[in-house]
Design brief:
Elements (H helix, E strand, L loop, with lengths): L9 H13 L2 H14 L3 H4 L3 H18 L13 H39 L4 E5 L5 E5 L8 E5 L8 E5 L2 E4 L1 H4 L5 E3 L8 E2 L4 E2 L3 E6 L7 H10 L7 H22 L1 H7 L6 H11 L2 H20 L2 E3 L2 H8 L3 E5 H5 L5 E7 L5 H12 L5 H12 L12 E3 L7 E5 L5 E6 H10 L7 H11 L3 E7 L2 E9 L6 H10 L3 E5 L4 H11 L3 E3 L4 H13 L4 E5 L5 H6 L2 E5 L4 H6 L2 E3 L6 H25 L1 H12 L16 H25 L8 H33 L4
Parallel strand pairs: 11-18, 11-20, 18-19, 20-21, 21-22
Antiparallel strand pairs: 1-2, 1-3, 3-9, 4-7, 4-9, 5-6, 5-8, 10-22, 12-17, 13-14, 14-15, 15-16, 16-17
The structure holds adenosine-5'-triphosphate, potassium ion and magnesium ion (MG).
Length: 695
Amino acid sequence: MTVNNRPMAATGTRHQQNKQKKVSNKGLYQRAFQDAFVKLNPKVMLKNPVMFVVWVGTIITALLTINPDLFGSIPGENQRFFNGLVTVILFLTILFANFAEAVAEGRGKAQADSLRSTKSDTTARKVLPSGKIEEVSSTNLHKGDIIQVVAGEIIPADGEVIEGVASVDESAITGESAPVLKEPGSDMASSVTGGTKIISDELKIRVSSDPGKGFLDRMIALVEGAERTKTPNEIALTVLLAVLTEVFLIVVATIPPIANYVGSPVGVVTLISLLVALIPTTIGGLLSAIGIAGMDRVAQFNVVATSGRAVEACGDINTLVLDKTGTITLGNRLAEQFIPVNGHTEAELAEVALAASLFDTTPEGKSIVKLAEKLGAKITFEPHSAEGIEFSARTRMSGTDLPNGKEVRKGAINAIKGFVRSRGGEVSSDLDDAYERVSRLGGTPLGVALDGDMYGVIYLKDIIKPGMRERFDQLRRMGVKSVMLTGDNRITASVIAQEAGVDDFIAEATPEDKIAVIQKEQEQGKLVAMTGDGTNDAPALAQANVGLAMNTGTQAAKEAANMVDLDSDPTKLIDLVTIGKQLLITRGALTTFSLANDIAKYFAIIPAMFAAAGIGSLNVMGLTSSQSAVLSALIYNALIIPALIPLALKGVKFRPLSANQLLTRNILLYGLGGIIAPFIGIKVIDLLITGVGLS
Ligand SMILES: Nc1ncnc2c1ncn2[C@@H]1O[C@H](COP(=O)(O)OP(=O)(O)OP(=O)(O)O)[C@@H](O)[C@H]1O
Ligand SMILES: [K+]
Ligand SMILES: [Mg+2]
């Protein structure tokens, strides 16, 4: 199964189509072709040691084309036409490698252009401390400034809404055309992004980023690859390839004395050809393209990664920490039923539940009000003289302080039990039956109390997202353990955990528990990924090796995380793990293939070199002539790069197997394939060039 055609990734697919529309492929290749020449600059080439050796080799063979006797003359060797052909093939090898990188960068560059077009310098209306309004350029807005934006205007900077309610079109950033409601206070809806457009009403916004440091600026720099630095894995592989190149350089340098000894002197051009054929040009030429394509694939899933390192880390994740509500379940928990206890009636419970939810703006709160009103409950106090107590993850309760001094609360069962006892009440024995009944259905039970008097339980119904079990099974096969973290009670947690098929769960978790769980895993040497959206998730997101914040989340969460999901779909972490693994596997597979190729090239060129010494029996491939053998090996060596560009960009087909199974499979496929393919390829090229009379 590949990442791209997975049916679950419905949002990803939709946005992929979206992005593809913005980026035309024709322009992409044209630009990449130009960039391939720009990258010939030796300063750029130096970053890639393998290709730099080819670059130096090309210059030498070019000189030897102009003056074949530059390094003295060897009979039958110094031929201008042959040298010229080698020069052209080596030059194309470099060009193909540069083209691979340029194509990989292309989509990001085009995306950056389209983002930049939404980012125009506008005039912003800054609200001065005196209350007066001053017009300033949006480039002069700083953190902490207060600005006013009205319908039809582009929001000039990132910020938090402090006044007003308005709908905002965020399609410039998310590709999602449905407008989003923005209002102050709530975690989900109060943060706005510069470059998005207000389509109704007006907002007062406190600017949260300095000029050039906004979300859009960061995103442009990221997709453009300006901030791309090699990841630790990539550096390690580059060093390995450089060492291999050096080893082959030494090996090739020892050939002339031996060749002279056996009476078959070898020319410089043939030696350079052998060197280029043996050094790992295939993986050397495709390495950065693979990394860039990984970042790009993440971007196509509408996720912004702040570094290639984060994308790679996804591939090495051992433990995935997810929260329950909204991640494993659909999360629109709606009140389904009131279950009275302690001798109260359903109507009494509905009335207290209504009072406790009057100021609760969460979807849960609103749904409780709706159900209570449907059952005929009425408010029996003056709302203006009552005070709403907001829900917090720490208290796990919300409610209302009534004008008559009484307090109504609703919340997690243990929290409500604590509240009732603290008000001198007793927990009635039928409460446990009620909450267990709800929990066994996988629902969230909320206890309702008025001071020390327990009224009953609200059943908040939640549904597990379809296909979760398969996704966790898949993760398990990849060796990734899933842990569900929830503020909900043990029974509900275990029911959902079992049904969804997670490996482990932690119930009644506080924000502190979240970070502790991650630390504990990391102490055992595990790499941990986590999703979250709230300010109280921020420390855990920063602690995790991969933190995926929801775009609807708070600024704090987004800054702490190293990835932001623009669609706010937490299950995307599963796709990211797949992309990360695919990136690592693709790199491994192409390295294996590249190195395995050497065997055939060796058998093609070495016999050719010593042909004059009469050891033609070495010519196991039966190639036509010495020159056609060298040229065929070099042409194969050059053509294999563009031939593998699609694989480097798309990634090796990914199967959810354990690391060991994958290794065995890939060594078989890319190792054996890498040994066999060039024997066939070189032989075919040899027949072709002999046919057209090139040699
Ligand atoms: N609006 C609310 N009013 C009162 N209590 C609530 C409200 N929302 C949730 N609760 C209770 O608080 C508990 C913790 O909720 P919270 O949303 O913080 O959970 P969490 O830690 O994010 O985990 P998850 O979202 O996965 O359940 C809930 O299980 C529920 O019992
Ligand atoms: K090579
Ligand atoms: Mg939650």
